[in-house]
Amino acid sequence: MTDQSAAPALVFLHGFLGSGNDWQTVIAQLGVDAQDTANRQIHTPDLPGHGLPAANMPEQVDFDAIDRWLCRYLAEHQIQRYLLVGYSLGGRIAMYHGSKQPTGLQGLIVESCHPGLAELPAQQQRMEADQRWSQRFARQPIDTVLKQWYQQSVFADLSPEQRQQLVALRSHAWGNSLATMLSGLSLGKQPDLRPWLSDSALPIFYIYGRQDKKFADIGNQIAQLNAAIRVHPIDDVGHNTHHADPLQFTQILQQAIQVIGKQHD
C-alpha cells in the first residue's frame, strides 16, 4: 500500500506524438530544486499508442476508455493521492479525469490544453479535420505527415531546425496507433468542460506561452470562468512551454505543488 504520509504522486501526461520521456528535463530541474522529491513518486506513462514500442491500445478509443486506462495505471502503481500534470492532449485527458471527481486527485497543472468546444458546428468541423489528419497518419509515411503536422499555426514559434528535430524525434511512431488516438480523442468529441471548470473546487493551474495566441486567449477565458483557477503565462515561448522554457515551467510547477499541498494540509 502507498504510504499516506508521503507527498502526493506527480503523474505527467504528455501530448499527442510525445512520450513520457518528454518530461525528463522538467523532472531533472524539479529534482535539483524541490526539497520533497525524495518523498514523492513521479510517474511519466506513455499514453496508449505512443512511446517505443507503442503502448497498448484499448479496444475502443474515446475519453471514457482513456480515463479507464488512467485509472488502471493509478491502481496498478498503488497511487492513492496524486497531482496530474498534462500538456495539450495530456492536459485534456487530465481535465476530463478531473471532471469525474476521483477521490485521490489533489489538483491539476495543465499546459496549453483546450477545455472543449461549446457549439455543435465547431465540434463537427474539428472532427472532420482530425479525421483527415487521422487518415494521413494511417496511410502516408510517418515522416511525411509529421512535416505537414508541424507546419500548423500552433507551432508557428518553431524554427525550421526545431521542426526538423521534432520530425526526427517522432519518426519512430506507429502511424496507425496515432491515427486511432487522434480520431478517438478529437477535440470535436471531447465534452465541453467549461461548466465543470466554472464550478470546480479542485485546485487547477493553467499554463500557456504568450506567443501562442490561440491558447493565450483560451487561458484568459479560463481565468474568467472561476476565480480559483490560477492562470500562468510564460513569456517568449509558444505552445510547448515545458520544452521551450523548462526552468520557468518548473518554477510554476513547484509553486502549484506548494499551494495545493497547503490546501490539503
Automatic annotation (TrEMBL):
<comment type="subunit">
    <text>Monomer.</text>
</comment>
<keyword id="KW-0456">Lyase</keyword>
<protein>
    <recommendedName>
        <fullName>Putative 2-succinyl-6-hydroxy-2,4-cyclohexadiene-1-carboxylate synthase</fullName>
        <ecNumber>4.2.99.20</ecNumber>
    </recommendedName>
</protein>
<comment type="similarity">
    <text>Belongs to the AB hydrolase superfamily. MenH family.</text>
</comment>
<comment type="function">
    <text>Catalyzes a proton abstraction reaction that results in 2,5-elimination of pyruvate from 2-succinyl-5-enolpyruvyl-6-hydroxy-3-cyclohexene-1-carboxylate (SEPHCHC) and the formation of 2-succinyl-6-hydroxy-2,4-cyclohexadiene-1-carboxylate (SHCHC).</text>
</comment>
<dbReference type="Pfam" id="PF00561">
    <property type="entry name" value="Abhydrolase_1"/>
</dbReference>
<dbReference type="InterPro" id="IPR022485">
    <property type="entry name" value="SHCHC_synthase_MenH"/>
</dbReference>
<dbReference type="GO" id="GO:0070205">
    <property type="term" value="F:2-succinyl-6-hydroxy-2,4-cyclohexadiene-1-carboxylate synthase activity"/>
</dbReference>
<dbReference type="GO" id="GO:0009234">
    <property type="term" value="P:menaquinone biosynthetic process"/>
</dbReference>
<dbReference type="InterPro" id="IPR029058">
    <property type="entry name" value="AB_hydrolase_fold"/>
</dbReference>
<feature type="domain" description="AB hydrolase-1">
    <location>
        <begin position="8"/>
        <end position="243"/>
    </location>
</feature>
<keyword id="KW-0474">Menaquinone biosynthesis</keyword>
<comment type="pathway">
    <text>Quinol/quinone metabolism; 1,4-dihydroxy-2-naphthoate biosynthesis; 1,4-dihydroxy-2-naphthoate from chorismate: step 3/7.</text>
</comment>
<dbReference type="InterPro" id="IPR000073">
    <property type="entry name" value="AB_hydrolase_1"/>
</dbReference>
<comment type="pathway">
    <text>Quinol/quinone metabolism; menaquinone biosynthesis.</text>
</comment>
